[in-house]
Amino acid sequence: MSATKLEPRHSELQQQIYNREQVFDAFRRWGYLQAQLDPLGQYLPAEPIPELDFDGEDADEARGYYCGTIAAEFMHIPSRERRSWISARLETEAPRTDEKRILDLLIKADVFEQVIQSRYLGTKRFSLEGVTALIPFLDELLNRSSELGAEKAVIGMSHRGRLSVMVNTFGKSPADIFSKFEDVDPRSILGGGDVKYHVGATGCYQTRNGKDISLHLVSNPSHLEAVDPVAMGRTRAKQARFGEGGQDRVLPVVIHGDAAFAGQGIWAETMNLGSIEGFTVGGGIHIIANNLIGFTAEPGETNSSRFASDLAKRLPVPIFHVNAEDPDAVVRIAALAIEYRYTFKTDVVIDLIGYRRHGHSEVDDPTITQPLRYAKIKDHPPLYEIYAKKLGAEIRGRVKELQTGFAEAQSAAKKMKKMPTLAVLPDYWAAYRGGKYKPEYEVETGLTEEEVGKIAAGLTAYPASFHIHPKIKKLLEQRAEMGQGKRPFDYGTAEAVAIGSLLTQGTPVRLSGQDSQRGTFNQRHSVLIDIENESAHIPLNHLSNDQAKFEVYNSILSEAGVLGFEYGYSRDYPETLVMWEAQFGDFANGAQIIIDQFISSGEDKWGLLGGVVVLLPHGYEGQGPEHSSARVERYLQLAAHDNMQICQPSTAAQYFHLLRRQAMRKWRKPLIVFTPKSMLRHPDAVSSIEDFAQPHFQNVLPETEIASAKRLLICTGKIGHELRVEREKRKDNTTGIIFLEQLYPWPEAELEAAIKAHPEAHEVIWVQEEPENMGALYFVMPRLKRLARDRQVLSIKRSAAASPATGSAKAHEMEQKTVIELALSGGLAGKVGK
Asked: C-alpha dihedral over 667, 655, 518, 595, to 10 degrees?
């Protein structure tokens, strides 16, 4: 095909330049569709593209740049500067590589895997064979990033190749890795620990410029992409610890599988955070270790388009595909990718395309599902042999040397004391404790009226030139009156005072969630907006000259990605009160993987601590199934070994003390808080300024208005206030109401004391507004029966249901009235509904 001719007035030179640019533009746009990327030649055949039907020297040159073993997708990037930057570097002769170093890295990677295969046949290990070029890729990436300012790298990856990366990149002892195949002393880790290809690792990489990069491999579960936001959150925290220049000094790298990248959406949530204020890390390096297979599924079954990476084109970031059996091209792209990241501060995706030598876990037989491909693989030599042949290098001696060394490492492993692999926490964790709760961990959280008043005054101040919304002006006036003791505190003000008090004590606070700046229920207003120019003012950042920083971000519409990020942040900044808020508590359903695999089990599996606070609005107000229940039962099912705290503060002051306790106490555990909705402004839930002077959060609020109750109702949250209001209407002076503020760890002593204070109460009744199969019922009842001893223990609740709540406001009101009637009538306890 010929290029388009210009008008006759243009010179022949201009015509040549125009023609060349026309040809090159076509190959920049579409050349990746004709690149040679599958080492086995089975998938990704060259597509016939009419736009590339050029011949001549220019076409041959462009084809060499864009249709070889490197394919680049970058013309979707709106920035001309960035497109030109990439094309200028691709349209040059490939730079020389250190072939000897590359070869040695490939030998180490493949021989390591071969030794495990021969010595631990039939054991899961998720081999890197087929994409061992990942090891020289990481070598070049880390070396070049060190030259550009990196001092630390946070790496997240799933199973495939993880053990090889631990040995060949992190410098872990092969004997230590082999010891994991020998397994542990079962008595040391009953019920805990994790498999060898999930645990994290730390290491130090010695670079060619004489500097070291400290490495951290993030612990991860089998939910392959769930580690992505955690790695980014940890990166952000480490960058924040450095302060200015932190984005250059800490590099995030995430290694994905092809089927997982194509199929699991959490990486998309994570990459969407890449340029969002409050979440950006200055760009991450995303590597797809592409085997062109997912367990037993072929590419046509794992992704609906040509490449596993195609969904990444929704973002203005470059994607580089590279044939994993061209190590020189792999190393070239590693250098280009890291330079792009440091130049433009955005993510880069590298699709490293190879194959998988064995079955998914080296246990299953892949010839059953992919017989033709595995017939090819059987006769296909390992990459180090192919590369050595290309270089004409003699490698038998080096291979033998490594085999001998690995054999000695295995012998040493058999003699090692087999213990679980648990993390060694960084120095900034020295002041904090995990494990079982101890009373000596408690701290006093109360503030004097003067201290509360001073903070409240700061919360309600704004510049004289600031044009405030009339409704917010009225709100701030009311908050000022609260600080003066003229009106009781609501939850929103109590929270702000708690945060302000921590900031002035030097504790940073970070809060994110959908619409968290204002608050879903119009209760927070932490960011004031000028109604004339929409400039922002954050009173919490103007309380004192030497205060800590308050960060509050409206997050993207994501639960799993954002909660994973905040959990990761809490892991590397324990001095900060880190909070994530669900728009409604039910929405945490979308983050269940993060809750199950990291928040509730991270300490048991990996010995890792985190103090993230999860705020979940909860309460039955007739808003339907998706706006009622934060699923209390799910968190209680996950509770064991004092792994986390589960609380529902029933007053504004209790919420204040709870947040301060979380930040001030050295016992560092995740905190699940069932926060109120309608109760935010419930007159029975407000607190006086004197309540802030109480010394502690109270795990149990005992009945104090009735001296000796005949019946005891025990509940948590909003239903308790509704019971109190109705009790007052009835002038009932025989029914006591006890609020259980902390469900876990179970406050045995406090609750027992609250019950014993009413010796004449022969009935102890658990009351909840959730259905029988939900809420805290099944968790609480056996514990109450143990505590109550000779007293009768009953329960009142809605009937078991498949859905959390009715969709009818009128039906809800009728159900709620019946629950309250049953609780206060003195009749038999029971169920409400069908």
From this structure: 40
